[in-house]
Hints:
There is one protein chain. The protein is an alpha/beta fold. The chain has one domain (2-199): Class I glutamine amidotransferase (GATase) domain (Rossmann fold). Helices cover 36% and strands 20% of the residues. The strands form three sheets. The chain has a seven-stranded mixed β-sheet, sandwiched between helices. Strands 3-4 form a two-stranded antiparallel ribbon. The chain has a two-stranded parallel sheet with strand order 7-8.
Amino acid sequence: MEIEIPCYDGFDELDAIGPYEVLANGFKDGDRDGRVRMVTRDGREEVTASHGLRVGADGRLGDSDPDLVVVPGGGWADRSPAGTRAEYDDGRIPARLADLHSAGTTIASVCTGGMLVAKAGLFDGVKAVTHASALDDLAADGADVQDARVVDAGDLLSAGGVTAGLDLAFHLLDREFGDGVAERVAERMEYEPSGDILVA
């Protein structure tokens, strides 16, 4: 199973690194082969996240023919010059997400990463959630906004603000890996996942 997390200047660190660690631990504890990679839209080798962390990337979004893409957010509400709003306006990540989804890739978003999925047109009429500060924007872009920490609409998933990405990742472990993998990873990470999951 190939999982990609597209990073860009201004993304929120925890939106990406939280799910990365949960999912990577799933491969260690489970029977599934695969990997999780941080990637960029243009193959850049390094980006700077919203709190100044420099993150090395391993390839271009879509290059591994991913089964799953987890899209982080960051910088939407404060209209930062770098971040989700800048990538929304640029349009290249949303366009790539649309192409990947049409080819069969499952797309999941964390926090305001959902705005990039919405820009791709993938949340039109679909139950979804994002950070509280962007719920009106998500609805304006066509999503059927829900009051839940994580929404699972099949091949489109979404999580609320920041730490909800951990719950999204544990839900994905439970859904895709089975056999108690999520429980073992949660125990090792000393985390209690939220049960606030809406399966649409």
